[in-house]
Write a structure and sequence with these properties.
- There is one protein chain.
- By secondary structure, the protein is mainly β.
- It has one domain: Immunoglobulin-like (Sandwich), CATH 2.60.40.10.
- It has 1 helix and 9 strands, in the order βββββββββα.
- The radius of gyration is 14 Å and the shape is globular.
């Protein structure tokens, strides 16, 4: 699940929370994307009390970001709730999260 939170404090930023279910068998899960230059280990998910995985990042408003999930630094995981999809140079698919401007988010 992907949840976007807009705040008046930093109107140019959107807090995006990525959540994954607790039934994923992994020691570590990372969020990898163009927002962090595809760095494989800079954004590690954390487990919540129920065992689910989550991670929140601040992203610039009004942009589309490509991303993927990396399990144990070897397996890529798909996200069926992404805003869109984009083919990548490796013959696979990246996922896209769009950080719409605040006024568009309120209309939805």
């Amino acid at each position: 699940m992907i949840v976007k939170s807009y705040t008046e404090v930093q109107p140019s930023q959107v807090e995006v929370t990525f959540s994954l279910p607790n039934d994923l068998w992994a020691d570590r899960i990372y969020l990898v994307g163009d927002f962090n230059n595809w760095e494989r280990t800079s954004h590690q998910f954390h487990r919540d009390r129920s065992g689910g995985w989550s991670l929140s990042v601040e992203l610039e408003q009004g942009r589309a970001y490509q991303f993927r999930y990396l399990l144990d630094n070897q397996d890529w995981l798909n996200d069926t709730e992404a805003d869109s999809y984009a083919d990548n140079a490796h013959g696979g698919t990246n996922f896209v999260v769009v950080t719409e401007p605040l006024e568009h988010a309120r209309e939805a």
